[in-house]
Write a structure and sequence with these properties.
The chain is of the alpha/beta class. It contains 15 helices and 18 strands. A seven-stranded mixed β-sheet has the order 3-11-10-9-8-4-5, sandwiched between helices. Strands 14-15-18-17 form a four-stranded antiparallel β-sheet, with helices on one face. Helix 11 runs parallel beside helix 15. The longest helix has 21 residues. It binds pyridoxal-5'-phosphate. The site of pyridoxal-5'-phosphate has 12 residues, from helix 4.
Amino acid sequence: MKDKIAALRKEYPALGSAFEGRRLVYLDSACTVLKLKRAADEQRRHLLELGGCGGKRSFHALAAAMEENFYAARSAAASFMGAEAPEEIIFTAGVTDAVNLLANSFPFTAGRNEVVLSPLEHNAVFLPFERLACAGRIKLRVAPLKNMRVDLEALDKMTGPKTALVCLTHASNIFGGREDMAAAADLAHAAGARLFCDDAQYAPTHGGGGAQYGADAAAFSGHKLGAPYCTGALYVKRDLLARLRPSRVGGGTVEEVSFAGGRYKVKYLGSYQGFEAGVQNYSGASALAVTLERLEKCGFENIRAHVSGLVDGALKSLEGIRGIRVLGRREDLLEGSLISIVPEKKGFSVPDFNLFLNQQRGRFIAVRTGRHCADLACLASGYRETIRISFFAYNTPDDTAFFIQALKKYLQLL
Ligand SMILES: Cc1ncc(COP(=O)(O)O)c(C=O)c1O
């Protein structure tokens, strides 16, 4: 395992970055993962060697090569996500784009118009539904938090005959750990509802996602795996996909337009084709496929074990430090890839500490502080901000040691 992780580590040029003479110590992979060199190379190759138009618009050899490459990327995403077929994959610009698409295309009915959210949902999931609720199109319910995780029993009680959709993040971006997606699928389906799984934080260090546990829809963001920005995919189970009504329409989505009786009639293409309006991010999709292939070659079981080891080591170091508190339970945190801490010592200022981390001798330590776009979780827990350290395959125990050293130094200064 160690060899495979070490070999992968060499493929992230940004690890060698320095800003104003300070070397990067990157503990912010939950925000975005540093980019894999071969992903950048593939995007460049695709743009320069292909660079034509996909989407079955033109019928010449270059367009055919583009389409073949795009479909191969779709197959790679389908296999990664655990879909039954590539036709269940809609390419998106990431989870935000995917949830906006799902929320605005979902077949709510007068009798089934409730959406139940976990309190751990990122604003990317919360806000599209909150807007629909404000417009009076759905009723929104948010389940409570328990030990920094979703209270599944309460979520179960809130899910009933009016529930159309349950949304649950597979791994929280603020409190870490992972959620029991199979249990969530069972409870949603028992009520006749659908389940959406947000794999943004789960996919990078576990591999795959909610489809493998019975979710009807799931999404991940490519940039959180080291692929280019604005890549990602939405999986929608075939029978649900057939019932969605495209919210974004345009070129490439139409089977036929007819005119009769003074009106136009538009027949949209089936499966993913009805949802990918306009020219797509073909080069990004190709680079995403290369990224998935590289991480799969390293082995997600190895990435998982490595990251879990880093979380374990960091928890051990944090346990002895007075003046801060680790949020969540150890056994839960080991299942995730990040740790949130909050200050307890008087005078500890999170923004000041952030600045302090930026100004270490010879190094700057990149972490994330604040609300992490997890406003529901902040409201439910009462924490207004946290300091989050997050890990990926390229991190080493030395990265944690630099952070711990700086944290201790800062606490001593208070
Ligand atoms: C849990 C979770 N969901 C959704 C998102 C949104 O992802 P993106 O900005 O790639 O659309 C993020 C990003 O931080 C996230 O952590």
